Amino acid sequence: MLTKPHRVTEEMKKDLSHFLKSMPIRILTKPYRVAQEIGDILHKEKDKSGR
């Protein structure tokens, strides 16, 4: 488990196109989904306090 970041970096350096193709799409979309969820929560809180 401790060597995972190193292994991922080495794999990326060897063949970037293969690395990107093998990466699950959810890893790429996760930051967007988290930001969207935070925005939804903030909107709900704003609506609660605005009433």
Explain this structure.
It is a single chain. By secondary structure, the chain is mainly α. It has a domain at 23-51. The protein is built from three helices and no strands. It has helices at residues 4-14, 16-22, 25-50. The protein is elongated, with a radius of gyration of 18 Å. The mean pLDDT is 84.
Write a compact overview of the structure shown.
The chain is mostly helical and 51 residues long. It has helices spanning 4-14, 16-22, 25-50. The protein is elongated and about 55 Å long.
| Secondary-structure-derived class | mainly alpha
Q: Main sheet, how many strands, which sense, barrel? A: none
- The averaged pLDDT comes out at 84
Helical amount among residues, as a percent range?
A: over 70%
Give the SSE order as H and E letters.
Answer: HHH
DSSP strand count: 0
The radius of gyration is: 18 Å
Which consecutive residue ranges, at least 5 long each, have pLDDT under 50? none
The fraction of residues assigned to DSSP E strands is under 5%
Note the total helix count: 3
Shape annotation? elongated
Head-to-tail CA distance between termini? 49 Å
Protein topology:
Layout: H1 4-14, H2 16-22, H3 25-50
Any descriptors?
single chain, 51 residues, mainly alpha
